[in-house]
Amino acid sequence: MTTDTTTKDTSPGASAPGTTVLDARGVTMRFGGLTAVRDVDLTVSSGEIVGLIGPNGAGKTTFFNCLTGLYIPTEGEVRYKGQVLPPKSFKVTAAGIARTFQNIRLFGNMTVLENVLVGRHTRTKEGFWSAVLRGPGFHKAEAASRERATELLEFVGLGAKADHLARNLPYGEQRKLEIARALASEPGLLLLDEPTAGMNPQETRAAEELIFAIRDRGTAVLVIEHDMRFIFNLCDRVAVLVQGQKLVEGDAATVQGDERVIAAYIGEPLENDPGAAEAAEVEAAEAAAEATTDAAPGKENDR
Amino acid sequence: MTTQTPPSTAPAAPATDTPTGLIGIPAHLGRALATGGSALAVVSTFLAWTWTAEFPGDLTVYGYPGGLQVLVLVGGALATLLGLSSYGVRGLGWLTPAGGDAALKYATLGTFATAWYTVLAISFDLGGLVNLEPGGYVVAAATLIALVGALALPFERPEPDPFDPDDTGWERFKHESGHRWATVRAAFTSHSPGPVRALPSYVEILIIVAVLALALVVFTYGIGTEYDELFVGFLITAGFGFSALNRSGLIAHASQITARHQNITVCGAFVAAACFPFTQTDDQYATLGVYILIFATVALGLNIVVGLAGLLDLGYVAFLGVGAYAAALVSGSPSSPLGVHFPFWAAVLVGAVASLIFGVLIGAPTLRLRGDYLAIVTLGFGEIFRIAVNNTDGTSGPDITNGSNGIASIPDLNILGFDLGIQHDIAGFTIGRFANYFFLMLVITAVVVLVFRRSGDSRIGRAWVAIREDETAALAMGINGFRVKLIAFAVGATLAGLAGTVQAHVTYTVTPEQYLFAGTTPPNSAFLLAAVVLGGMGTIAGPLIGAALLFLIPNKLQFLGDYQLLAFGLALVLLMRFRPEGLIPNRRRKLEFHEEADAPTVLSKTGA
């Protein structure tokens, strides 16, 4: 990776290590009668990489959306550096929380550089009149934006592909570009939603190094991931979300050793597990389907 | 990424008995026939094609091509040159950087179509083949020979898909006809040409000047066509000629050169457009020029809203109407209830601000929504504007707009003592009323082009494109979607209002019936949108060309009459089926619609 060159300059959104960046208290999200997230507390300090894991449907992405202003939590509040988050996602980004998406959402028909420049939107001010009149301020700001975007592309290792269309990048590079685009808004906290989904081991390792490099720039990182090895290597702290509730939180060893986590992942039913009946039904149906069709489904992709 | 079919001409197994071209003539003979036939067609345009001058254009003269003969001459000359170039004649290689065969096919097809259209038109108009002189027979035979020869040229055949032996006859038929269609298409495609090598910049600028001059000549010729047959012939020749040049790779090279000198190209295009009135001897076609320019300018304004920000606006013509009515009300017209006469600059300001206010009023409540709601609301607004203007006549409502009679006898503009209503003599050229307005309108067009280019390539323009591509992701990048969309909407409305202020003075009268959703005469909302889509969304040249075509075709082809809208609909359906990105595709849009297309910046082999 090209990390060694750029790790020195910390990103402007960074704060002194140890201070709390994100503070979510009692976040509950209900959709009608369904409670997707129930009373979750989570803090992220600067200079920290925090992981969020949990089986499918545990409410990880819903919780993420609560943090980024896409959803407004039914109860509880989310504070970023002491300020309650505004309820609009573009204001959250302006406040300093940037995110990537589980299913990559790049602007496919823009070039790689333009994608990153879009990420600079909140940190620049040139409006319509400035664009039409093109005063000296416009050129200066545009040049600064381009310089910063190019720097970020170098940082994630896409410097040579600045003029390619985003859609033409291979999958792993699209993930990197999404991270560069998020970093362009100079966040104090970066939220990564399954950054290694669909990656091969080499790409996963590269992503790991990239995230460490981002941490070293002073940006706190919160990662959702399925890949256990990846998350336990990477994170200072890991929180486990099961059925919308936080089960355990702690360092890798604590979480790995906790039998409730193992139970949640291996499938031993919890007491009064409301989903057990359905899960059994689904399993039975799957078994029946597998018996009839000999197409053994590849289980490597657990989404 | 690059799904260009690999150059496997399949001469391996079945090549012995299958012909390499579409027609089973040896390739070298075909090439000779195509080139020779085209040359013969050129010669034949100097012969008489018919005996009487009753057929328009007078095709009876020996040694002096007229009317449709000129078109055949141009097509034949192009085909001959392409044919010679495909022989590798020294000095003509620049004509066909992407290979000459497909281009030659298009050129001969165009010549053939024009010549046979002429011959058939003569026979039908005058009643029988007997009216043809030997020259007519010669040109028909020559172009047919050229076409047959060109079709015999080799091309890369697509591999036939194996078919299921259990298929029914109908399925097999579908399969085979699909393959046949793919073969025909392959016969008419060519590779994309390589990059043009760097020339000295004065040469490149000369090339740009030549391209612009050619465009001006073609456009002026199209506007000046005097009868239906000539205009149809013009469309056939221009269409196939453009396709031929496109296949030969010349267009791609020219656009690469213009992309290197964008500012010079834009300025040159305005100079070329400003030359247009000087090419006209009477006001008849200058009038068309003004109307086309108004239509094209409004279409370009709509392109900001639709092409850049992706907001579907079905009532855009209402903003033109707001601007026109605002200008008419303060123009000092006797039928305006206000009875004030503002100077031009103030009237322009009033028109633009009125449109801006209406744009914000319509946009503010609706732009918070996504998707099709906006289209429905703008469609409604367009109709509300027209009906409201109809009703504010003093009986059904307050007396503001004079109802369906409209505001009549709007006085001509007078800018700094220069009366646009009368003729002026400048350097030996007589500049009539419409030419005056043409120049004024050109200034407005320049403003719109400037706004489009500069805002498109800036922070706000990138935000527009991002919103169009993926609104959720754009919001997550910190873009205030509502605000950015409202700016696009308001800018579009203001520019339309600006054009409207001039339109009111050009047409003397503004009535509500000028601002329909769909009608037979442009500009109306449907035609404006069609001009943008037909020309190519998100480009500058696209809407200008689309608007020119959409204005000229109904105007010139009077025989279409009542079937005009039907033909228009059919043409749109066909276009959307075969070229959804428009005539002048935007780089982004082209990729959106043709997944398999070659990317302009092709990936290096690292990904593969």
What this model shows, in words?
The complex is a heterodimer of chains A (303) and B (608). By secondary structure, chain A is an alpha/beta fold. Chain A has helices spanning 3-6, 60-67, 89-95, 112-119, 128-133, 136-156, 171-183, 201-216, 228-234, 252-257, 259-266, 276-292; strands spanning 20-31, 34-45, 49-53, 75-80, 83-84, 97-99, 189-193, 220-224, 237-242, 245-250. Helices cover 40% and strands 20% of the residues of chain A. In chain A, the strands form two sheets. Chain A has a six-stranded mixed beta sheet with strand order 6-7-8-3-9-10, sandwiched between helices. A four-stranded antiparallel beta sheet of chain A has the order 2-1-4-5, covered by helices on one side. In chain A, a hairpin with a 2-residue loop joins strand 1 and strand 2. The longest helix of chain A is centred in the middle third of the chain and has 21 residues, at 136-156. Chain A is globular. In chain A, 44% of the residues are buried. Mean pLDDT of chain A is 82; it is low at 1-10 and 293-303. Chain B is mostly helical and 608 residues long. Chain B folds into two domains: 27-158 and 227-244, Butyryl-CoA Dehydrogenase, subunit A, domain 3 (Up-down Bundle); 275-593, ABC transporter involved in vitamin B12 uptake, BtuC (Orthogonal Bundle). Chain B is built from 21 helices and four strands. Chain B has helices spanning 27-44, 68-86, 101-126, 134-151, 169-187, 201-224, 228-248, 250-260, 262-279, 283-308, 317-329, 344-366, 373-391, 433-456, 459-469, 471-476, 481-507, 525-535, 541-556, 564-578, 587-593; strands spanning 414-415, 418-419, 424-426, 429-431. In chain B, the strands form two sheets. Chain B has a two-stranded antiparallel sheet with strand order 1-2. A two-stranded antiparallel ribbon of chain B has the order 3-4. Chains A and B meet through helix 3, helix 4, helix 5, helix 6 and helix 7 of A and helix 14, helix 15, helix 16, helix 17 and helix 21 of B. Chain B: InterPro entries: ABC_transp_permease, LivM-like. Chain B: It is found in: Cell membrane. Chain B: It is a multi-pass membrane protein. Chain B: Keywords: Cell membrane, Membrane, Transmembrane, Transmembrane helix.
